[in-house]
Amino acid sequence: MKLFIIRVLLHSFELFRFLCFIKGDWQRGLPLLAEGGSEPLQAIATRDLQGAADQSNQAALGDAWWDLAEKARSSVYRQSAQDRAKFWYEQAFEVMPDSLDRLHVKARLDEVEGSSATSPLAMIQQLADEVGVDLSVSLASTGKSSQRSGSRG
């Protein structure tokens, strides 16, 4: 019975990581990682869910994700953790006054922008940027009308 529970927990952890790091579904994946991830990942997911009240805390969350990325063995997880760091760095950068902290955040943002895409999600984003596709627009509703018009045309 214990072995079964361990296997279920391990598979659950893989699902949680898949949601965040491969699919990019941080909204659903973060709460699950906070409940059952590895200790470092659980701690940072919990902090991320709590959010950041000011640019200093936003930059600190970005640094925490960045540090996690540097420890990742897989380039896919590294890229996704850097992307999450970028999310927090961008929020902090918008409101930061000129300072050494702002230079630090800008350097990290430049590094993320200059790196080549290694995760499936980053590759899709890079391709979308190159061809001018807005990924925030849902294709679900437009796909049905395209199928209908395409089958009659």
Secondary-structure blueprint:
Layout: H1 2-22, H2 26-36, H3 39-50, H4 55-71, H5 75-95, H6 100-114, H7 120-131, H8 140-152
Helix pairs in contact: 1-2, 2-3, 3-4, 4-5, 5-6
Write up this protein:
It contains 8 helices and no strands. The chain has helices spanning 2-22, 26-36, 39-50, 55-71, 75-95, 100-114, 120-131, 140-152. The protein is globular. It starts with a helix and ends with a helix. 23% of the residues are buried. Residues 4-11 and 144-153 have low confidence and may be disordered.
Entry summary:
By secondary structure, the protein is mainly α.
Overall geometry? globular
Low-confidence runs: 4-11, 144-153
The total strand number stands at 0
On the 0 to 100 scale, the average pLDDT is 78
* Major sheet size, sense and barrel closure: none
Radius of gyration, Cα only, in angstroms?
Answer: 18 Å
Structural class: mainly alpha
Measured between the Cα atoms of the first and last residue, the distance is 59 Å
**Helix proportion range:** over 70%
What are its keywords?
disordered C terminus, 8 helices, 153 residues, mainly alpha, 80% helix
